[in-house]
Amino acid sequence: MSKVYVIGTGMIAFGKYPDRTLADIGWPSLREALLEAKVKPDSLDAIYCGTALGGMLAGQRVAKVLGLSGMPIINVENACSSSSSAMAQAFNAISSGRFDTVAIVGVEKLTKFGGGTLPLEAEDWENRQGMVMPALYAMRANRYMHEYGLTAKQLAEVSVKSHDHGALNPLAQIRKRVTLEEVMGARPVAGPFTLWHCCPTGDGSAAVILASEKIARQVKPDAVRIAASEVTSGKYTNGYRDMTTAELTVRGSHEAYEMAGIGPDDVDVAEIHDAFTIAELMYYEAFGWAKPGEAYGLLSSGATSLGGKIPVNPSGGLLSRGHPVGATGMAQAVEIVRQLEGRAGKHQVEGAKVGVTHATGGGVAGFDHGACSIHIFTT
Fold this sequence. Notes:
The protein has 379 residues and is α/β, with parallel strands linked by helices. Helix content is 35%, strand content 18%. The chain folds into two domains: 4-114 and 203-224, Thiolase/Chalcone synthase (Peroxisomal Thiolase, Chain A, domain 1), CATH 3.40.47; 125-195 and 226-378, 3-Layer(aba) Sandwich (Peroxisomal Thiolase, Chain A, domain 1), CATH 3.40.47.10. The strands form two sheets. The chain has a nine-stranded mixed sheet with strand order 3-2-4-7-1-8-11-10-9. A two-stranded antiparallel sheet has the order 5-6. A hairpin with a 2-residue loop joins strand 5 and strand 6 (193-194). It is globular and about 55 Å long. It starts with a strand and ends with a strand.
């Protein structure tokens, strides 16, 4: 199997662009990635596009603006894991020898819905009963607090940390620091969450160019390598499940670590799916950086902040960088690649050599999450 490398990255600032089409939002990041990789359009073997709510033939709509057509253009929908799942498909195509150079773009335009929670499927009985994402994560938070004694004030510290990081990131949707008092005193959403406990909706795109070892040696000898690419789905159950642990991420992280030949202590920087504050703490434990119930101790020690042992979400994460669903996985990939290349600017993690990205997709009754995609990058 061929090794797979990242030879180009591109991303626009996440935000709200109600007057732009999906294609208008998507093509600038793809163009930036192509220019950075010095890839001629006619040398692309395929384009993969990840979007959850972008509609039919999103990849074709984005690519045609740049005059790209004729090659395979594959559209992937896997909820919040859409573009990271698209990257996993591209990784498999290159590692198997089928393709040499592939572009992946993640793009989403959520402003078309006019605000509110993500529209889930009406056929799902939990959704009909009001089990939207803030409600689900609030249930997880309450159960975790009950089991482990986490306080509302401690939970709010996750948001403070994330917005400290996001304030340093020029591509983040929210570039504002918040105090503990502001987080706790903000508008209630779903107890114990206030507004600052929840990721914002918005629009955005991000893209990467992947290449085989043969191509990477020619165009970028020091390119970051993808050491593991893993996608798995949740296990369906209509009975009891432990809401304080993310079973899907536990399973997926073990598989990714094994593929990369590393362990939790080898990770220098991570971008994980912190759609709500409790998610970040749960994923500390799922990735093996903290034992069950001890995630807050890791946070409060400063280990996951910039300058700590394992900075988590130096971009600001979903809470601050934003979460235009289908674009999130690629935004994480762009962030980690740039971190490992030492060009993340004011939120650079010094000396990072191993990075992790993690995107989960939920919203179906009976599943912890419907999908989870994890990638491990190395220098």
